[in-house]
Specification:
mainly beta
C-alpha cells in the first residue's frame, strides 16, 4: 500500500504513504511410527506473524493517525499446533483412521491495514486493526474405509470443527462519533458425516460413485461486517449482537451426488458391420440433490420478522451429461503421429430441462413476487402529465417537473400508448407494469434451462 495523494499535509503523507511490511514464519515437522500394523503420524507446526505496525489502544475518542499518542506496537502472534493421524488396518480390506489437528490462520491483511491509517474518521467503514489475533480451528475426524471386493468399496467419514477467534467487528462508542473496528470476536462450528460408495469397472465398463453428506454449519457471524448496525435491545438500549450460534448462509444439511461413467477402451464395445462404434467412448451422467439453504424472513422493507436463517430455500436436483469419443490419428494417417488423438464431446447441462425455483424472496417466500415490485397502485405515480413538447399555449409544459436533472424531458414515447403526446398517470402505471413483466420474465430465482455445448480438442502424446 502507499501513495496517498489525498494527504492533507506532509505529516499525514508520511504516516499513510509507506507500505506495510508484515512478516510470516512457519515450520512444520512430521514423523511416522508403525507399531503392530498401526500407523501413527504425529506432526507439529509453528506459526509466527509479526504485523510490524502500531495499533490504536482503547480510547473513548477516535485517535487520528497523526497523533503522537494513543498507539502502541502490535504484538507478535504465534501458535504451536499439534496434529496427529492414527491409521489402524482392521483387515487387509478395511482401515480405521482417527485424526486431530489444531490450525492457525492469519486474518487477511485487508482487515488489518485497510482503513487503518486515517486522520479523519469516515463513517460507514470499519477501522482496520493491525493487532488482530490469529484465527484458530480445532479439527477432529474419524474415517472408516471398507473394500468389499475388487469392485465395490465403501467409505464413511465423520468430522467436527470448532472455529475460534473468527473475524468480526467491535463497536467502539467513541465521542462524538462512534465507529467499528475489526476484531477476532466471532465463533462457529461445523460437523457432518459423509458416506461414499465406489464401484470400479470390472468387465461391465461401468464406473459408479455415490456420495451422501449430512452437515451442519453454525456461527455467530457469516462475514466480518454482518453485525454492523445490529438492532438495539428495547430494554437495555444495548446492541443485540448474537449470543448464540445460528445456521450460516452456506449451511447445507443434505447433499447427494453421484456420477455414472460408461467407459469403452480400444477395440471394446458392440460391433456393427465390423465397426466398434463405442470404442474409446465415454458416456457420463452426473446428478446432484441438495436441500435448501437458510434465509431470514423479513418484511418488504428488509426488517427481521423472525430468527436469523430460520427459514429454508427450496431443495433442488439436477442431472447433467457428457458424451465424448476419441479418435487416434494414427488410425487415419499412420503411425507417424504416435498417440496424438482428437476428441469430440457434447456437454448437456440440466438434462431434463427442469426450470424450477431455486430461491425465494425473504419477504414473501415466493420466487417471483418480492413484496414490493408487484405491490403498486395507480396512485403511487404522479398525477402530473408529461408532455412531449413545450408549448406557449400551455404553461404546464414549461414547468420544472417536466425535466430531469440533466434537462431531458420526462416524456417517453414508449409510455404514450395512445400517441397523443401526453403521458398520463394511468399510462405511467401501465408502462411500469409492462416493465415489471419484462423484468420478471428473466426468472432469476429459477434454474437455468437445458444448455448444450459441443466441441473438440486435440490431445498430443
Amino acid at each position: 500500500f502507499g501513495g496517498n495523494i489525498y494527504a492533507e499535509n506532509q505529516k499525514v503523507w508520511e504516516k499513510t504513504s509507506k507500505p506495510n511490511e508484515p512478516r510470516e514464519f512457519g515450520y512444520y515437522i512430521q514423523d511416522q511410527i508403525s507399531y503392530k500394523g498401526i500407523i501413527i503420524s504425529p506432526g507439529l507446526r509453528l506459526d509466527l506473524v509479526d504485523p510490524n505496525q502500531d495499533y490504536r489502544v482503547a480510547s473513548n475518542t477516535f485517535i487520528p493517525i497523526t497523533s503522537d499518542t494513543g498507539f502502541t506496537k502490535a504484538s507478535v502472534k504465534y501458535q504451536i499446533s499439534p496434529r496427529i493421524n492414527i491409521a489402524y488396518p482392521i483387515t487387509d480390506r478395511s482401515i480405521l483412521s482417527i485424526a486431530y489437528g489444531l490450525y492457525f490462520k492469519t486474518p487477511q491483511y485487508q482487515y488489518m491495514y485497510d482503513n487503518f491509517a486515517q486522520d479523519i474518521l469516515r463513517g460507514g467503514s470499519p477501522v482496520g486493526n493491525p493487532n488482530l489475533d490469529a484465527q484458530r480451528t480445532n479439527a477432529y475426524q474419524v474415517a472408516y474405509n471398507q473394500q468389499f471386493n475388487d469392485v465395490f468399496a465403501l467409505g464413511v467419514t465423520a468430522y467436527y470443527n470448532d472455529l475460534y477467534s473468527q473475524l468480526g467487528a467491535t463497536y467502539i462508542p467513541a465521542s462524538p462519533t462512534p465507529f467499528y473496528i475489526y476484531s477476532t470476536s466471532e465463533y462457529g462450528n461445523t460437523r457432518g458425516i459423509e458416506f461414499e460408495l465406489r464401484k470400479q469397472p470390472a468387465g461391465d465398463h461401468l464406473l459408479l460413485v455415490l456420495n451422501y453428506t449430512y452437515s451442519k454449519v453454525d456461527g455467530t457471524a457469516p462475514n466480518p461486517e454482518s453485525n454492523f448496525g445490529a438492532p438495539r435491545d428495547i430494554y437495555t438500549d444495548k446492541f443485540a449482537f448474537p449470543l448464540a450460534t445460528y445456521p450460516q448462509p452456506w449451511d447445507l444439511r443434505h447433499s447427494l451426488k453421484g456420477y455414472v461413467n460408461f467407459i469403452w477402451g480400444r477395440d471394446e464395445g458392440p460391433s456393427i458391420f465390423g465397426m466398434k462404434i463405442l470404442q474409446n467412448a465415454n458416456i457420463n451422467f452426473t446428478g446432484s440433490y441438495r436441500s435448501g439453504y437458510p434465509y431470514t424472513k423479513t418484511d418488504k422493507d428488509g426488517k427481521l420478522l423472525g430468527e436469523y436463517n430460520a427459514e429454508r430455500q427450496p431443495s433442488f436436483w439436477t442431472v447433467s451429461s457428457r458424451i465424448s469419443k476419441l479418435f487416434y490419428l494414427k488410425d487415419i494417417v499412420g503411425e507417424s503421429l504416435g498417440n496424438t488423438a482428437i476428441e469430440f464431446f457434447v456437454d448437456i447441462y440440466n438434462l431434463f430441462n427442469r426450470t424450477v425455483p431455486t430461491a425465494v424472496y425473504s419477504a414473501t417466500g415466493d420466487p417471483i413476487d418480492n413484496g414490493v415490485t408487484l405491490n403498486r397502485r395507480i396512485g403511487d405515480f404522479s398525477s402530473t402529465p408529461w408532455y412531449k413538447e413545450a408549448s406557449y399555449n400551455n404553461p404546464e409544459t414549461f414547468m420544472s417537473d417536466q425535466y430531469d436533472k440533466f434537462g431531458n424531458r420526462f416524456y417517453n414515447v414508449n409510455s404514450d400508448f395512445d400517441k397523443n403526446g401526453v403521458v398520463t398517470q394511468s399510462e405511467k402505471f401501465e408502462s411500469y407494469m409492462k416493465y415489471v413483466k419484462t423484468a420478471l420474465s428473466f426468472l432469476g430465482n429459477y434454474s437455468a434451462p437445458r444448455t448444450i455445448y459441443a466441441g473438440f480438442m486435440i490431445r498430443f502424446n
